[in-house]
Amino acid sequence: MNNKNNLNKKNEKFPEIKLDWSLVQSEMKIKLGKDIYESWLKKLNFVEEFSGYVLLSVPSRFIRDWITSRYLDQILQILKIHKKEISRIEFKIIEKKQEENSFNSFENNQVLQNKNVSFIKDSYLQYNRIDPNKNFENFVVGSSNKIALEASKKVSENISHYNPLYVYAGVGMGKTHLLNAIGLNLKNKNKVMFISAERFMYQFVKSIKSNDMVKFKEYFRGTDVLIIDDIQFMNGKEAMQEEFFHTFNALLDKGSQIIISADRPPNKLTRIQERIKSRFSGGLVIDIQKPDYDLRNKIVKAKCDELNTFYSNQITISEDIKNFISFEVKTSIRELVGSINRIFSFARIYNKVPNITETKVILKDLLSLKENKVSIDFIQSSVCKFFKISKNEMLSSRRSRYLVRPRQTAIYLTKILTSKSLPEIGREFSNRDHTTIIHSVKTIEKLRKSDEELNNNIDFLKNQILYHKENEI
Ligand code: ADP
Ligand code: MG
User: Fold this and answer.
1) How far apart are the CA of 230 and the centre of ligand 2, in A?
2) How far is CA 435 from the centre of its chain?
3) What contacts 386, CB < 8 A, 6 or more positions away?
4) In principle, which of 155, 263, 404, 424 could form an S-S bond with 420, CB 3.0–4.6 Å?
5) Which ligand 1 atom is nearest residue 333's CA?
6) Ligand 2 centre distance from Cα of residue 171 (Å)
7) Edge-to-edge strand ranges of the sheet holding 88-93
């Protein structure tokens, strides 16, 4: 996309070959591995190509330096395969906010992509490849995805229980993971077809061109389980929708299971015929919501454990860092997983686990850091309200038992929910010494392990503070 170059005017020596960035991305994914791609390289965007150099945008200085020092040669090699005149890569730092406006508009992308069918090429990666690493066992469950997981399991046990099953959620929320897990479970006993809607369109167009429509129909109509990922990208011509509709009905009639994912509910799909939408709505429609703090924290922990099982030298990420990431990276599970990959890459290369400051730099483009997003004042009043004490009592120097715990709780919550330093926290609690602050934090940390009621109270307060409207971005 974004081939904004003017090469044909400026350089007539070479016949115009446009660089297909999506193809370059697919190759980077294959050659450098999916983890590295997802954690670092995916952030690169093509900006311009001119006189043998390619200009790429990157979201932060740190990522630019990281990529330059580690992957630049390989990226250049890949670029040269596509266009041998390319001899240099330049970077331009475009921070997240700006980038969102210029690249991420979904509708714009769709229009762009429609004109240029080459984007389909990269979806061959997904073509009926069921990934054994995305299964039900490593799908971490929380309140936002529980129903989706249960329905998916049900379908895996008993075909056509819910038919079709339609799962929708924003990007990076686990749709493909779930669909893949269903396919994985069913593929031993059934003929499973797992395909992205882009690929479906591509196959369709190809079969028309090569006069293979009959084969195409047979192929799809012969499946027991048809799983179509990202149906929002299916926006093809009437003829294709017609074919899809018939395939869909034929499959339902013979009792095959159909599972569909999308980024929005059926009635919000654009460019898809009404009758198809209404058939989508006829089964079970469920969504996956954004993960809450608890789910994010569980995923961070699970992912750290998982990464440690792959390597012999264990990396121990501190609870503080884990909590920090769980707290700060909230846009999607994909970004959360990407963050952990980055921390591990850093730790392996520098042979040291990053501290909080380094973590902030490493994850800068993923964090929504706003200082004082959670105000100390708000924490204090929430805790006071919960324990039914007054703020004066909490801030006083009195040591009555009924005041000490709430005070320590408020101090502890301030430490984990804000990025304030110990002396700063001390100041907010009537100029207490930073050693008092440490003592409070440690006491509560310890008690959380042994005192279930206290632990539950803290979780409750934490959620209340985090998800209070004022603290939403
Ligand atoms: P989507 O298809 O909704 O864009 P994906 O299924 O590709 O999202 O998920 C993005 C990443 O997050 C993948 O690496 C996936 O394995 C991981 N992921 C998503 N949800 C979960 C979950 N509940 N537990 C563990 N990993 C998850
Ligand atoms: Mg997906």
Assistant:
1) 7
2) 39
3) 406, 457, 460, 461
4) 424
5) 12
6) 7
7) 45-50, 53-58, 88-93
Q: CB of 296 closer than 6 A to ligand 1?
A: no
- Determine whether the shortest distance from the Cβ of 134 to ligand 1 is under 6 A: yes
Kindly tell me the sign of the dihedral angle through the C-alpha atoms of 326, 329, 334, 339.
Answer: negative
Residue whose CB lies within 8 A of the most ligand 1 atoms, among 126, 177, 300, for a mutation test: 177
Q: At what angle do helices 333-350 and 293-310 cross, to 10 degrees?
A: 40
Please give the chain's pLDDT, 473 residues, in tens: 444 444 444 444 445 667 889 999 999 999 998 888 988 999 899 988 887 889 999 988 888 888 988 899 999 999 998 888 888 898 888 876 533 333 333 333 333 333 333 333 333 333 567 888 899 999 999 999 999 999 999 999 988 789 999 999 999 999 999 999 999 999 989 999 999 888 888 888 888 888 888 888 888 888 899 999 999 988 767 888 888 888 889 999 999 999 999 999 999 998 888 999 999 999 999 999 999 999 999 999 999 999 888 777 788 999 999 999 999 999 899 999 999 999 998 998 888 899 888 898 889 888 865 544 678 999 999 999 999 999 999 999 999 999 999 999 999 999 988 878 889 999 999 999 999 999 999 999 999 999 999 999 998 898 788 766 444 33
Residue nearest to atom 19 of ligand 1 (CA): 174
The answer to whether the CB of 167 is under 6 A from ligand 1 is no
The answer to whether residues 444 and 408 touch, using CB atoms and an 8 Å cutoff, is yes
Does residue 181 have its Cβ closer than 6 Å to ligand 1?
Answer: no
Sign of CA dihedral 100, 106, 107, 112: positive
Q: How far apart are CA 470 and CA 229, in angstroms?
A: 36
Query: Residue 283 Cα, ligand 1 centroid: separation in angstroms?
Result: 23
Q: For residue 197, which ligand has an atom nearest its CA?
A: 2
Structure tokens at 465: 């503070």
Q: Which two tokens stand for residue 187?
A: 């593929």
Owner of token pair 């690249």: 103
Which residue owns the Cα nearest ligand 1 atom 1?
172
Q: Residue type for 443, please? A: T
Tokens of 144: 């936002």
